[in-house]
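Bench notes, afternoon.
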Amino acid sequence: MTYIAFPQWQPGMIINEARANSAALIGRVVFKATRDTNQAISSTSQANPDQVNAISWETISDDELGGWSSGAPTRYTCQLAGWYKIEVKVGFNAATLGTARTLGIYVGTTLQPAGHFRTATTFTNQVHTQSGYLTVLLGVGDYVELVPGQDTGNPLNTATGGVRPLIEIAFARPA
């Protein structure tokens, strides 16, 4: 399928395949991936996300626009400029240490404003899940990463099964 940068329908505009396909992207999930095995997340000060801990995606169940590459498995790279809704989730294995679990949505090397999700609590020996979403404007070539954080003082593995890390990106609207 061919997609184009498509701002909106205009009076008298001819409907062609690329325009129709692009208009049909609105609200559609264009990327979905999970991490199905444990990934060690190093401990950081105040559990702040550190890009060295970006989740490396293993199972790509949807990549409508071809933005993921096994050569850069932590990244989804934008192929069509526009606004995207990014939904993320990460599960942490059980640990009793630390006071926070976090995750951050990065575009390039920048933690997005309002894209830092944090739970501060006294943890018991149970799996903990952190999730969030954010709508961001992406240009062609911008890349998105999910970066978890924790402060146990030791590496902590991400969980597997139903609480495994997930990213789902939907095309919200043209730029």
